[in-house]
Amino acid sequence: MPQTIKLIGTPMDLGQSRRGVDMGPSALRYANLGQRLAQLGYTVADQGNVEIPVRDTLPPQGGLAYLPAVVKAAQSVYEAGQQAVSQGCLPIFMGGDHSISAGTIGGVSHNRRVGVLWIDAHGDFNTPDTSPSGNLHGMPLAALLGYGAADLVNVGRPGPKLAPEEVVLIGIRDLDREERQLLLASGVTIYTMRAIDERGMATIVREALARLSHLSHLHVSLDMDSLDPTEAPGVGTPVPGGLTYREAHLLMELLADDQRVGSVDVVEINPILDRGNHTAHIATALLASLLGQSIL
């Protein structure tokens, strides 16, 4: 695992209708993410924020009207991810909504195959044809596998960035009807909350890592709405019945033990909806566990 971490703020708020998620990078900085990781022995370099268009300067209808701006921003984070990996660093992309992952994962996989652990309440596997809302933060994983708007699919380099056998979803519990059909047909591995309830987090994570054993690098895309809203209230699309605090930490601890994680997204923190920056503090603690902090 690289010993230099690059923090890359991505204040994206164009992928969904609720305002405030653009303050996620500031919330993580205020929660002392950089200092927490430095205490673990890493060299931490904060790269500032990728430039994102101000929402109020764009078409008021939102949704798919924001596609050109989201594609442009995704291109910027693609380049930031590619550069960080080429320099031997571990990039942590601080979102922002989950649409950033259409660029981040493309960038970190530019010169190498990467396995992705998509930790989320949602599948993010809609396309413009299947999405009931048209919100772009519900489409990045589909785009990474080649489905949906061509401009989003082709960010950074033409075509899909991931193959189905390189993707594992964990914590899923809220899917749109047509999204569910597309996701099932895609061939990716999906662990719903029912699977976690029945089999336990440790079994699920070890099985997921075995499914990705053919890959030397892993990317963790952590959507904070994967946790139960009682644990992480500061998210725009909360869904009851999510991961507990300890389940989430165990997931991160087991990924840390595996030692293949080379890049991370942490997304969907909305301080406006939060209580005392609690969700950003939880995210900071989870990232510390992912990067090696242990009880003993």
What's this entry about, in short?
The protein has 296 residues and is an alpha/beta fold. It has helices at 24-30, 33-38, 67-86, 101-108, 140-144, 150-153, 177-186, 193-199, 201-211, 245-258, 278-290, and strands spanning 4-10, 43-49, 90-95, 115-119, 167-172, 189-192, 218-223, 261-267. The protein has one domain (4-290): 3-Layer(aba) Sandwich (Arginase, Chain A), CATH 3.40.800.10.
Q: Overview of this structure, please?
A:
The protein has helices at 24-30, 33-38, 67-86, 101-108, 140-144, 150-153, 177-186, 193-199, 201-211, 245-258, 278-290; strands at residues 4-10, 43-49, 90-95, 115-119, 167-172, 189-192, 218-223, 261-267. The chain has one domain (4-290): Ureohydrolase domain (Arginase, Chain A), CATH 3.40.800.10. An eight-stranded parallel sheet has the order 2-1-3-8-7-4-5-6, sandwiched between helices. The longest helix is centred in the N-terminal third of the chain and has 20 residues, at 67-86. It is of the alpha/beta class. Helix 10 links the parallel strand 7 (218-223) and strand 8 (261-267). The chain is built from eleven helices and eight strands.
Give the strand line-up of the largest sheet: 2-1-3-8-7-4-5-6
Biggest sheet overview: 8 strands, parallel
DSSP E strands, number: 8
CATH superfamily: Ureohydrolase domain
Q: Could you spell the SSE succession in H and E letters?
A: EHHEHEHEHHEHEHHEHEH
CATH architecture assignment: 3-Layer(aba) Sandwich
Approximate shape: globular
